[in-house]
Each structure stands twice: as C-alpha cells, then as structure tokens.
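re: ur question from earlier - yeah i can do the single chain one, its not a big deal. heres the input i used so u can compare w yours
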Amino acid sequence: MPRLDKGTLALTFKFDCDRFLRFRLASDAEKDSLGIEADTYKRPGIELIKAAGRRWEADKYQDLIDVSPPDAVEYVEKEEVDELVGRKPFGKVENLFEILRRETPPFAIIEAEFEVPSNITPGLQEAYDTYGLDTVRARPDIIWIRPGGTGHPLIGDPDPVPEFELHVIDVKMAAEPSLRHFTEVTYYALSLAAALAEQGLSDRYAVSAEGFIWPGSHDANAFRNLVREYEARGDSDPVTSALQDTLVPVPYEVYQVHVKQFFEERLLRVLEQRPEEASWHVGPKCQLCDYVRYCKQEAENCDHLSRLPWLNQGQAELLRQNGIATTQSLREAIRGSTTEWQAAEASSHQLRADRPALLVRAEALHTNEPVVIEGRRCSFMPAWSDQNIFITVHFDPGSGITFAMGAARVYFPPGRSQGDPPQTEEYVFVVDRVDAMNPDTERARLVEFVTLVSRWLEEVSDTNSRLPSADRVSSHIFFWDMLEVRQLRRMFERHMNHPEVVDLIELLIRLFPPDQVLPDPDLFKSQPGTIVKDVVRLLLGLPIPHDYSLFDTANTLFPDRNENGDLYRFQLPFGFSTPMSDQIPFERAYELWQDKIFLRHFDPRFPDQPSRWRPYTRDELYEGIKHATRVHLRALQHIVRRLREHYRDRLTLRKAPFSAAPPTQTRIPERARSLIAFEKLNVACQELENRQRRSLPVDEREAHFFS
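and the output i got, formated as tokens:
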C-alpha cells in the first residue's frame, strides 16, 4: 500500500521529480524488481545533519514552553534521551481535537498529529479509492492558537469570525526557507481547515491563511531575548510580540496552487504509472536524492538527454516529443538540421539560441575530448593578470555557517625577469568548533581570511602607487561557482558590524558587497572577480555528463601527467566529496564540531564492509578537511591556467592596474551620493551586458533577440 509521508511531499517539491515520488511510493516488491536502493545510509555522518535539525526544533519548542505561562503549551516528551540530539525528544500529541474542544484551549500545541481528510482535494480521495493510498497523516510542528479577529485572512473567509484562529508554524534550521518549506506549511493549513470542518469545530475555530516559518538563527537565545525585551517595555503579550518579530509569513493563496496541483495532478499521474515509467531528469538539484546513483547509471545506459549539462527537463521533453531522445540523436539532428530538430527549434527559441552549445556538449560526450564553441568570446575573464587570487568557501547549508575557506595567490611582481617563477602562497582556514549555531569561531577565521586577502590586494595597490602608470600591475580574483561568492557575502553581512571585523573588511566589502551595501561603481566596472564555471560553460563542451563539477573539469581539461607518465587526477578520499557537488560534504563539519565521528578510512580489502574500516580520529578529520580545501584550490588554479594557455584569444577582459584607494567623496548629501552611485552602476551594468552580448556570434545574438 503506497504511503505518503510529510518528508516525501516536501522532498518532491525540492527535487521536482515524478520518479522520486514514485520510487518513494513503491512497494518492496517493486523496489526489489528494479534494484532500487536508497543511498542515504551510504553517507557516513548524515545522521548528525538530521539530528541537528531535530535539536533546533526541540530547542525552539523548549523556548516557547519556557517563556509561556505554566501549562499554556500542550506537548508530549518521550522517556528516552536521544544521544545525538542531546535531550529527550518531543513526541506526537494524538488528541488534538479533544484539546480543541476544551473550554479554554492552550496557547500552542506542539507536534499534534491528525488524519488528513480526503476531501481537501478530489485528487486525494481518488488516490484512496483507486490506488489504495495509505491514510495520510499530518503533524505540524506548532499550532499557535490566538483569539479571533487578529486581522489575518482566514481560510474559507468565515462570517462571523470564529472565537479562535489557528496559525501553523513550521520550525526549520535553515535561515532562508525555500519552496518546499512554504508548501509544507500550506499543506498543513489546508489539511487542518478541512479536519476542523470534519470534526464540527469550524464554528469555533478557523485556520489562518497566513502560516509561518520559524527560521534558523545564529543566536540560539534570540527568541528568549526578544521576549525579555518586550517584557521590559511593558508589552501586554510579550510572547506573541516576539513570535511576530521572529516568524516568516507564508501566504496561503500563493502556495495553495502548488499543493492542490500536487494532489490533483502529480500524485494521480505518478500512481497511475509503473516506477520505471515516471518521468525523470538528472541535474544538479538531484545531488542529495536517495536514488541519484540509480538514475545516473540508467542515464548512461540509455544515453539520456539529461546527460547534457544545462539542458532542463522541459527542453528535454520537447526534444523527445519531436523524436530526439538521446544525446547521440540530438548531435546528429543538429548536424544534419533534420526536420525533427527544425520542429523542436521552431517551438523553443531557447533551444534555437543554445544550438551551438548543445551540439558541442553532445560532441564532447561522444568524442571524449574538450570541444570549443566556435565564435564565442568571454568578456569576464582576463587572459592575463599579474596577481591571481583563488578562493574556495565550504559551508553548511542548514546553519549557513562556513566550515572551511581557502585562499591562494600566484603573483608576478613588477621588475621580474622573464622566466622567473611567480610568488605563491596558499592558506586554509577551518572552523573547528561551533556551539549551538554560534558563529563566533567563523568570525575568528573570517578575520584571518580577510586580513590575508586584504594584505595581498593592498600590497599590489601600494606597489602601483610608487610606479609609473605603464609599469603598474593588475589583480584578479577567481572562484569556481557563484555559490561560494554568495556565501562569502553572507559572512560579510553577518559580521561586518562587529568591532573585530568592521575596520578590516572595508576593501573586500567594496569588491563583493552584501545585498544591503551599494556596490562601488568603479570597482564593479573593473570586474574584480570571475566565476570560472561560467567561463567553461560559455566557451567549451566537455566530456562530462549532467554538470561540470570542479574536479571533473580539472581532470578533463588538459590534465598534467605525474612522474610515471600517468594522467594526474584531482580526487579526494572517501567521505570528502559528493557526486554532482563542489562542496566538501557538510557532514564532516558536524563531526568536527560535535566530536562524533562516523567517517572511516576506506579499506580496499573490505570494500562492502564499512564496519571493518578504521575510524577517523578528530585530528585526521581536521587534516582531511584542510587537504580537501587545498585540492579544491589547486584544481581551480589548474583550470584557470589551462583556459589561459589554450583559449587565450577568447578571453577579452582587459584589466586596469589595481587600486585599493577608496572612492572620492564629493561634497554633496549622502542621498545624492547614493543616487549618483546608482546611476553609475546602471551605466556600468549596461556596458558589461553589452560587452558580453557583443562577444557572442551573430547567429546567437539573433536567436536571443539581441540587436
């Protein structure tokens, strides 16, 4: 009997994949017949990630209990301590509707479970009747009960307004909630509203159309401190005021469309199919899916279109509808401009615009060689810069805390003789302790990182200030992907006002400003850094399926040979890399932070018996993270070097001499200065955009409707 739990619902929105949903609903017999094997248990330490989420939930539950009046919060606490969580976990409250029938209901109910009525949508009833779907149950993290008339919209728009309003709160460790979190809250609200009507309680209660996410925070005591602050002000209801400041609203009317579409279309469509028939597409978002290895193997076996990086599922489906189902057939169709390709191209201008790249990426997969996309130029990477700084950043997406940073420099100082080796430096910074999501240790490592990179930049700027203009040198910063830049900006934003950081970070904030800081127009126009993955995507097709990862790209792009004449490969030991990801697995950070190490040294004598592998010590784990960070830096340097050696004529950015001098402050009001800076940024954006458009071949500009 298929069973739909809350994890399946939320993860289906995360992966946006019919196959994932069908595999999760598959019977044991169906799984055995296909050889479907979930991969989660193969990631040692993943239990710590799940435990961290449960610990955050339990801590927020306890916060709410402790700041509320005695017996105001209804909850159940289990008897046994969960060692990974570090406390007794909360259990489910099974008598929700009995509690709601009390004369005076509680302020909140934690983890109340109830059966989802089949009438929340016709699709759910059909799933029960036709496919024997097991009874669906819902368990919101917190149901917040408030007196009616708060002014929030209510589901069903009841008239008159009932005595009480119920607000669904979902507690998440993530600081930035995503679509799956919002749809989960909406699903609970929709289900609870239907359950109240079924139980005859809708005359007394209504569910608010505005649910909430309780997001993660780096201050574990933030909510308690807010309550104390409101108490000190004499607020009549400090807990409610603190909740309103803490919670992120989820508008029901926006996300109910996604929930209803899931039950009325996707769920029924998937249940109607055999597991192997459900649609699928392997891409970067699949990296944490339980079934990604199964799908990658099948993609290789059948030459699935998803093997082409950056071809999305909608485009692949359009190609299949026109008789193009494999990368080889796509290659032949584009080469021969067949009627099938012409039909697909006519129905999607994006396919038409991507024609040169699609052909080259398919060619690379089948020739096993890098292939250049003819006619393209890259205007955001220089063919030469005197100082080259390489940066890599690795972080935990749940807490948002960085656990490793690396910075390397390759510098050709002025006055050197031809053939002299460059000055090189390489440093790694590991955040080895984090207590209760407190980012203090991250800040200490950030200070070291910022001090180092600023010293490199200011050294070049000081050198230039003493040289004639013709002899001055340039500087450029390289990252592999945009994820690292975003995390660096998040760290800047988190710590920029701290006394230890504020005086050090001014230069780097001008180079990579957080969202709340207006960029320096002159530095922005100079393009201080490059996302190298974007350069590879623009210029090359590589024999790499699904996505161009850092190590795969480095190992494919004209690799070096070692002393034995064999090709050198950038690779890491078991447990320090994840397929389709360029981040060190964040489980390693939790093992380091909590001194609970699950990782073991792979032993080729017992490849299928991990229990016989030797466990890592904490020192070995620490050194393993440092080593992995260094290998990331060296792989990035290799790719930049090879791009410059083999495709120099396609790299059109010309770097001016670097200056760290702050912008001149004109004697006009602050608001006027901001408006002038904003106008300069607009002009710079238009110039950079035009430069990149002009670097495309004429037929591609035409396909993109660029004049």
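Residues 315 and 351 are 7 Å apart (CA to CA). not sure if urs matches, ping me
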